[in-house]
Amino acid sequence: MTARRLVQLVADYGPSDLAFAEMAQLLEFVVPDAEVRLTRVPARDTLAAGWCAASLALCEGPPARLVVVDVTASGGARHCVGRARDGVEVIGPNCGWTWSFLAADVCGPCYLEVPARDGLVRMPWLLAKAVVRVARRQPHGVREPVPHDEIPAVPDSVVAFVDCDGSLETTALHAADAVGRQMEVRIGDVTATALVTDGSPPPGEDALALRPAGSTHGGGRPFSALTVRGGSAAELFGSPPGGAPVALTAPAGA
Known about the structure:
This protein is α/β, with parallel strands linked by helices. The protein has two domains: 5-150, Rossmann fold (3-Layer(aba) Sandwich); 159-249, Elongation Factor Tu (Ef-tu), domain 3. 17% of the residues lie in helices and 30% in strands. The protein is built from four helices and 14 strands. It has helices spanning 18-30, 46-58, 124-135, 233-236, and strands at residues 5-11, 34-40, 66-70, 79-83, 89-93, 107-112, 142-145, 159-162, 168-173, 182-187, 190-196, 208-212, 223-228, 246-249. The strands form two sheets. Strands 2-1-3-5-4-6-7 form a seven-stranded mixed beta sheet, with helices on both faces. β1 (5-11), α1 (18-30) and β2 form a beta-alpha-beta unit.
């Protein structure tokens, strides 16, 4: 029995949308042994898409899996491929921050020999063309490397992704030397006190924790996540959107 090939799809549509059904159908057509799994991000949110793509590509998992990004964004964008460790390949358009968290950790990215996307018009067949060139190892399909000055840097200290449990993944650097101490966290108009941890949950059901993010992106920088055990950090901070600034300061008198 042939093993299924894991395809992680990061997209701004849901499992009940026609867009997902169409994309999953195309992916299974061009990768016959595909097992497609969906991670949904907000509409046009390339920051969240880039974060999730890096998380899925750089963490432990089955070798030779594909991470495919399909998020609408303004302006035309060419599809690219980058190769991480264990033969993991990432495919997605060079738009917004899609490649910002990955550029320092993959071989490439390189442009693919497919037409550029037409702005906000979703063209699933274009992405399928990009995937088939990578999945079937078509050497003519991979073109020149993407100049790194065409990939924006990861923005400093912002909300990158809001998980379904209300955890806030951020690009604020984790202060490992402050573990066990408290810091004030400000997002938008809300300020709260968080206990800096090394990843272990703090005592108390409603304690706000500032812990290391699930993985490091953007050249191995240790980012921070905000969580509330038994609650939602996103609700605590008024459901901030991706890109919202995150300010971390030591409490007064500390």
